[in-house]
Design brief:
A: alpha/beta, Rossmann fold, six-stranded mixed sheet, 10 strands, 24% strand, B: Methane Monooxygenase Hydroxylase, Chain G, domain 1, 7 helices, 81% helix
Chain lengths: 282, 243
């Protein structure tokens, strides 16, 4: 994962003022705007996968992206940290901003961007290294710690925040791959938050976990959202309803409806949203 | 309201249909209880009153059944959106219908109590008319539920004012009778409670109207409902000067 260019600050373009939340908006909308996408279109070769997606993502809250398989929600999530850059033939147009700054600007280093926008995947994917090294990797390559003691502090701190430290403190130097699925996923979360990201993207983080491990991750999300902005893709509507403050429904590459989670699951405005969340033939 | 497509899981569709049918049955029974109770009171028919009192048990049983079905559905299906509103509506409406059944039963009991009394025709006519109005409201709101017709529910909601107005005038009339001759007090008190029961039934019908509106639109009715029942603040002394 070597960066080809010398690391630069992730973004340098002058920041336009962050739009103020509307007055009288509901609590989740009073949160500060963290990311904003406008007119995002995406093609895999000839095939268009996203159509004019406009979405506002707020800080210190969880935004859930739901929709049937192939609706583009994961593709969209991967636009937010430029993970699609590495896919051959993938082309993105439109505007995606983090704190008002264009993340697709030519001077933005994707590696630096991904330190600000972390990602957790569906399948836990720890490096074939020790638990300690898994978490220490990020801070080390980004040069966040100058001393060994400092690095240790960051590793312990991240594992603690991920709710894993108590379970692994006696075996920090054993391989991360020896942990259970749920523990591995929390290790991946610890790894993602070790570089102090501002946004955490989660792509179906619980789909391979049992209900107890899922509950642990959901509890963790609740805690993490106090400090950062979380975007989660999930196939479980119940999970979206449980953990998120805002929910966006995607269908056939289009953003159909986005609203307060409580509204989406009790009184959605769009027929397609209702058909999907209530399990009807659309 | 948006179109309701069928569920992919057929048994879910069947469970919701069953819930709807049970409400419809319960509503039919509540209408019957109310209609018979008023008839029993008017005709001084103790037998009909007795049968009506028994019939209320069936309504109670259906209410328990709906509650059990709804709880199981929430646990097993984790309903969302319109489905969730349907189940919540069924629960709420069943509670209102159960209360309407109780109030109807209460009227039937009073019919038994006043069987031997001489009834002034005009008073009975007023009470009967009020009962018919409440029965009409109940019918309309149940149709609105079955047809998911929020506008019809809204009409019921506004029309409750008429029952309230009638109750006010009956209240005054009954007071006058009582003041005219203390021997009327026994009968008039029963009739007054009967009228109050009908007025309460009207209120439950408006509750159901609110539920139907919520079921269809997902929001509460925002308008202020005209409150017509002023008897609780009517001074009795005022009537004495009128006598």
């Amino acid at each position: 994962m070597e960066a080809k260019v010398a690391p630069q600050p992730a973004v340098q373009t002058p920041a336009p003022p962050v739009p103020k939340a509307k007055e009288g908006a509901s609590p989740a909308e009073q949160r500060e705007l963290k990311m904003k996408t406008s007119n995002v279109n995406l093609w895999y070769g000839e095939k268009q996968a996203l159509f004019d997606v406009d979405l506002e993502i707020f800080d210190r809250s969880v935004t859930a992206l739901i929709g049937p398989s192939g609706c583009g929600k994961s593709t969209f999530l991967r636009c937010l940290d430029r993970m699609n850059d590495v896919i051959d033939g993938c082309r993105v147009t439109g505007d995606i901003r983090l704190d008002g700054q264009d993340i697709y600007a030519p001077n933005v280093d994707p590696v630096q961007l991904r330190a600000r926008v972390g990602m957790v995947f569906q399948k836990p994917n720890p490096f074939p290294k020790s638990i300690f090294e898994n978490v220490a990797y990020g801070p080390r390559i980004h040069g966040l710690c100058s001393t060994k003691a400092e690095l240790e502090e960051v590793v312990v701190g991240s594992l603690t925040r991920a709710g894993l430290f108590e379970e692994v403190k006696d075996r920090l130097h054993e391989p991360g791959t020896g942990l259970s699925g749920g523990q591995q996923q929390r290790l991946c979360i610890a790894r993602a938050i070790s570089v102090n990201p501002e946004v955490l993207l989660m792509d179906e983080p619980c789909s391979a976990l049992d209900p107890i491990a899922t509950a642990r991750i959901e509890d963790l999300m609740e805690e993490l959202k106090e400090q950062l902005c979380i975007v989660i893709v999930t196939h479980s509507m119940q999970q979206a309803a449980r953990v998120s403050q805002r929910t966006a429904f995607f269908h056939l590459g289009k953003l159909i409806e986005v609203d307060q989670t409580s509204t989406i699951f009790t009184n959605p405005k769009e027929q397609r949203t209702q058909d999907y969340i209530t399990g009807r033939f659309g | 309201m948006m179109e309701q497509h069928e569920h992919i899981v057929r048994s879910y569709e069947e469970e919701l249909a069953l819930l709807n049918n049970t409400i419809a049955r319960m509503g039919g029974l509540a209408e019957q209880v109310l209609g018979q109770a008023i008839e029993a009171l008017e005709r001084r028919d103790a037998e009909l009153a007795g049968a009506t009192i028994k019939q209320d048990e069936e309504i109670d049983e259906l209410q328990r059944q709906i509650e059990a079905e709804a709880v199981v559905m929430i646990a097993r299906r984790q309903p969302m959106a319109y489905d969730l509103r349907q189940i919540m509506a069924a629960l709420r409406i069943s509670i209102d219908l159960e209360r309407i059944g109780d109030l109807g039963k209460n009227i039937a009991k009073r019919a038994v109590a006043v069987v031997m009394e001489q009834q002034p025709k005009q008073l009975m006519l007023g009470l009967k008319h009020m009962g018919e109005l409440a029965l009409g409201q109940l019918k309309d709101v149940l149709d609105a539920f079955i047809e998911r017709d929020a506008d019809r529910a809204l009409k019921v909601w506004y029309k409750d004012e008429e029952i309230d107005a009638m109750y006010n005038s009956l209240f005054r009339e009954l007071l006058t009778y009582m003041m005219e001759d203390p021997r009327n007090i026994g009968l008039c008190t029963h009739l007054l409670f009967g009228a109050k029961n009908i007025e309460r039934i009207g209120d439950h019908a408006t509750n159901i109207a609110e539920t139907v509106y919520y079921l269809v639109h997902g929001t509460a009715i925002v308008d202020e409902r005209p409150k017509g029942d002023t008897t609780s603040s009517t001074p009795v002394a005022l009537k004495r000067s009128a006598v």
